[in-house]
């Protein structure tokens, strides 16, 4: 019954990919129509980590919600394996402990609490949260909350992870630690990942490919392959060069 991450990670297959084709999405607001996405395309092969960078408001969160099936496109096509979203704002429930927050996706599927805790406990330990299993979100640091929130997404057991700025709002040191740690997790837990980030360096450090989006209405303006072995160092000249390329595509003076 429990679909917690298997000890032996299952191989992902072709259905665990993501394909977004010429998608447009607009919102009717009181001040008129807002075009969030216009002609947005991207694809991610199984196990691929595709980083998406773009200016604020260009439709990145909308894109992830489309991929997760939380909203429909107005036009175009979205095809994706079952996907779990790590939302931009951490939606940990303040009255639940870390372990119950981490296991929430399991509980939502009807897994009894003790079983959900059993599934979550080894992960909390692995992510350095063993002493905080019974701690509530308000008493956790920002980095700890992000880890719990990520764990909840991972424990949903879906082949596709849609991560919405998972390390925003963290100090530089914690963010670097978390980036290294996400890299490790993905080595042992194969997932297809769409990683939205403001941080071009983070995109190059973690992504197999980087998609650069235009300002709103968002679409892909550049696709940058990152053919570099992991772990990657931010000081590696090849990393620096790709970062500059992405910044130039974003229209930022390097
Ligand atoms: N439910 C909604 N109703 C009305 N407008 C919306 C809705 N969701 C998004 N928008 C608008 O669509 C545009 C894209 O929003 P979205 O949140 O996808 O951007 P984003 O790239 O994630 O921004 P940020 O980098 O600031 O997180 C914005 O102008 C936003 O105001
Ligand atoms: Mg967003």
Secondary-structure map:
Layout: E1 18-29, E2 32-44, E3 49-53, H1 60-67, E4 75-80, E5 83-86, H2 98-102, H3 104-108, H4 113-126, H5 142-155, E6 160-164, H6 172-188, E7 192-196, H7 200-206, E8 209-213, E9 220-225, H8 237-250
Helix pairs in contact: 7-8
Characterise this structure.
The chain has 254 residues and is α/β, with parallel strands linked by helices. The protein has a domain of 162 residues: 3-Layer(aba) Sandwich (Rossmann fold), CATH 3.40.50.300. It is built from eight helices and nine strands. The chain has a six-stranded mixed beta sheet with strand order 5-6-7-3-8-9, sandwiched between helices. Strands 2-1-4 form a three-stranded antiparallel beta sheet. The protein starts with 17 loop residues before the first strand and ends with a helix. The chain binds adenosine-5'-triphosphate and magnesium ion (MG).
CATH class of the domain at 14-82 and 158-250: Alpha Beta
Q: Treating each run of at least 4 consecutive H or I residues as one helix, how many helices?
A: 8
Strand order of the largest sheet: 5-6-7-3-8-9
Assign the structural class, choosing from mainly alpha, mainly beta, alpha/beta, alpha+beta, or little secondary structure: alpha/beta
Largest sheet: 6 strands, mixed
From the coordinates shown, what is the CATH architecture of the domain at 14-82 and 158-250?
A: 3-Layer(aba) Sandwich
> How far is the N terminus from the C terminus?
52 Å
Shape: globular
């Amino acid at each position: 019954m429990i679909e917690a991450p298997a000890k032996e990670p299952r191989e992902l297959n072709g259905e665990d990919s993501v394909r977004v084709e010429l998608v447009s999405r607009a919102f009717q607001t009181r001040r008129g129509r807002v075009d969030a996405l216009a002609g947005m395309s991207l694809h991610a092969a199984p196990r691929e980590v595709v980083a998406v960078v773009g200016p604020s408001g260009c439709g990145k969160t909308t894109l992830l919600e489309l991929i997760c099936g939380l909203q429909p496109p107005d036009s175009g096509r979205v095809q994706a394996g079952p996907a779990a979203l790590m939302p931009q704002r951490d939606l940990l429930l303040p009255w639940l402990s870390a372990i119950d927050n981490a296991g929430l996706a399991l509980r939502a599927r009807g897994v009894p609490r003790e079983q959900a805790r059993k599934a979550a406990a080894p992960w909390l330990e692995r992510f350095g949260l063993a002493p905080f299993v019974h701690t509530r979100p308000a008493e956790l640091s920002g980095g700890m909350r992000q880890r719990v929130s990520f764990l909840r997404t991972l424990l949903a057991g879906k082949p596709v992870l849609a991560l919405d700025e998972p390390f925003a709002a963290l100090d530089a040191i914690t963010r670097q630690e978390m980036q290294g740690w996400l890299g490790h997790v993905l080595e042992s837990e194969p997932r297809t990942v769409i990683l939205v980030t403001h941080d071009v360096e983070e995109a190059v450090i973690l992504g197999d490919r980087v998609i650069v989006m235009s300002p709103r209405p968002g679409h892909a303006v550049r696709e940058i392959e990152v053919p570099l072995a992991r772990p990657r160092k931010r000081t590696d000249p090849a990393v620096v060069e790709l970062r500059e390329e992405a910044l130039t595509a974003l229209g930022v003076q390097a």
